[in-house]
UniProtKB/TrEMBL annotation:
GO terms for cellular component: mitochondrial outer membrane. Its main location: mitochondrion. This is cysteine synthase. Gene3D superfamilies: 3.40.50.1100. Belongs to the cysteine synthase/cystathionine beta-synthase family. Pfam families: PALP (PF00291). The chain crosses the membrane at residues 23-44. It comes from the Eukaryota. GO terms for biological process: cysteine biosynthetic process from serine. GO terms for molecular function: cysteine synthase activity. It is an enzyme of class 2 (transferase). It is found in: Mitochondrion outer membrane. It catalyses: O-acetyl-L-serine + hydrogen sulfide = L-cysteine + acetate.
Length: 489
């Protein structure tokens, strides 16, 4: 076979090397762009699938109240409080400091949740019956008493609140306005029978006791109250009925047992309902509001229920979240967390007497272990002791820079948040959640916040000087300076 050379038409020319190179580069770039866009699309789709799977693990977010929604009475307003970003602290530190705005509860504090749960549980167990003339007794520094008085009014109960005589006067006025009987006593150790919690228990035990007016009668004897068995050794329930049990076949006996007034000692310090109010309520709310993305939770402890309930719930979801205690001066919990000892010599329960000059902080701090604190200790990772000077400085800083008028325990919590962030060296948007327990409106008579008249300002400064508490607004500013992180945990 003879091959003849193929003759290419004159109008067809091979591309120049430069053109060939440009075409090759164009094809290569086009292929790369196609591959990149395909990979990016697949990545986005995969990420969305992961997000959907992650979101499916969470319950529905709490219902946010709107103008067209109706709740049932004052108790329907309790809970589902928002998280508020503390802008000044967050911006200065490069993290997200978020406060659970518990001061928006109808009773004005986080204790609304506890009071409601204690009363609900007592009614569910048959220990309390509404509108029977029953009376609730509690020993408190104020906030729990206000919450109990609020709910008691709505449920048809009377209440007696025993409290130290050095608490802010605004709390006493609020209690009296709600119809509570208030008894103020000198601050004392828990070992003293006249300590306010012990007195509340005594008052409940004596509820319904009648003295016979006819002393000549041979049957003239004191009628002692009957104790109704409860599921807690600390909760005390008494009845004015003639017997603790009733005859099922005797309608009169049953009616007397169920309708007669009862005395109920709530005992927030030892009552497990305190813990459960936060484990089943506040903790899940925080988890949903942050979509499960938080790095630390900070709280003080008075009874221990808040940090125990919220901390236990968060740890059950993510054990890597840091749980931190904020403890004021005069409290022994800091030493218990850091050193395994409940108190040091100067804070010994039974010798230390808490007077006004000991601390300006109300609502948190204690020198004994309670059932609720016992539930908290296993999950607390760190603790910070907050001085009165730091609490005063933070309170005034928040008013000046954020317009937030918060109480002393809230100020302590936020100081602890700042110290934690500095210790951990965080500055990349980590989320730290804390509790804003109540507002400053309950602390006018305490010197946390500057007043706007010359006379009241002088009284505040005089109070602080007598208590030897420095008045230094620069304290918080110094804490926010960009210094290297402190020692690690």
């Amino acid at each position: 076979m003879i091959w003849f050379p193929l003759k290419i038409p004159s109008w067809i020319r091979w591309p120049s090397p430069s053109t060939t190179r440009h075409v090759f580069y164009g094809v290569l770039i086009g292929f790369s762009l196609s591959l990149t866009s395909t990979s990016f699309t697949l990545y986005i789709q995969s990420r969305r699938r992961r997000q959907r799977r992650f979101a499916a693990k969470f319950e529905q977010r709490p219902i946010e109240l709107r103008s067209d929604e109706i709740v049932s009475g004052v108790t329907g307003l309790i809970g589902n409080t928002p998280l508020v970003r503390i802008n000044s602290l967050s911006d200065a530190l490069g993290v997200e400091i978020l406060g659970k705005a518990e001061f928006l509860n109808p009773g004005g504090s986080v204790k609304d949740r506890v009071a409601l749960r204690m009363i609900d549980d007592a009614e569910r167990l048959g220990l309390l019956r509404p509108y029977t003339g029953s009376r609730i007794f509690e020993g408190t520094v104020g906030s729990t008493g206000i919450s109990i008085a609020t709910i008691a009014r709505a449920r048809g109960y009377d209440c007696t609140i025993i409290m130290p005589d050095d608490v802010a006067e605004e709390k006493v006025k609020a209690l009296k306005a709600l119809g509570a009987d208030v008894e103020r006593v000198r601050p004392a150790s828990i070992v003293d029978k006249k300590q306010y919690v012990n007195l509340a228990r005594q008052r409940a035990a004596k509820f319904g006791r009648l003295d016979s007016t006819d002393k000549s009668s041979p049957n003239s004897k004191k009628k002692r109250p009957n104790i109704i068995e409860s599921n807690s050794a600390s909760v005390l329930v008494t009845t004015t009925a003639s017997r603790v049990e009733f005859d099922m076949e005797d309608p009169h006996s049953k009616d007397e047992y169920l309708s007669k007034p009862r005395g109920y000692f709530a005992d927030q310090f030892e009552n497990r309902s305190n813990y459960e109010a936060h484990y089943n309520g506040t903790g899940p709310e925080i988890w949903r509001q942050t979509n499960g993305r938080l790095d630390a939770f900070v709280s003080g402890a008075g009874t221990g229920g808040t940090i125990a309930g919220i901390g236990q719930y968060i740890k059950s979801k993510n054990e890597n979240v840091v749980i931190v205690l904020s403890d004021p001066e005069g409290s022994g919990l800091y030493n218990k967390v850091k050193h395994g000892v409940m108190f040091d010599r100067k804070e010994t329960e039974g010798t230390k007497r808490r007077h006004q000059v000991d601390t300006v902080v109300e609502g948190i701090g204690i020198n004994r272990l309670t059932n609720n604190i016992d539930l908290a200790l296993p999950i607390i990772d760190d603790a910070f002791r907050i001085t009165d000077a730091e609490a005063v400085s933070m309170s005034r800083y928040l008013v000046k820079n954020d317009g937030l008028f918060l109480g002393s325990s809230s100020a302590c919590n936020l100081v602890a948040c700042v110290k934690l962030v500095r210790r951990m060296g965080w500055a990349e948007g980590q989320k730290v959640v804390t509790i804003l327990c109540d507002s400053g409106s309950r602390h006018y008579s305490k010197p946390l916040l500057p007043r706007f008249t010359l006379m009241s300002a002088l009284r505040n400064d005089e109070y602080l000087r007598k208590a030897h508490i420095p008045m230094d607004p620069q304290i918080v500013e110094d804490l926010l300076l960009p210094l290297p992180p402190l020692e690690p945990l």
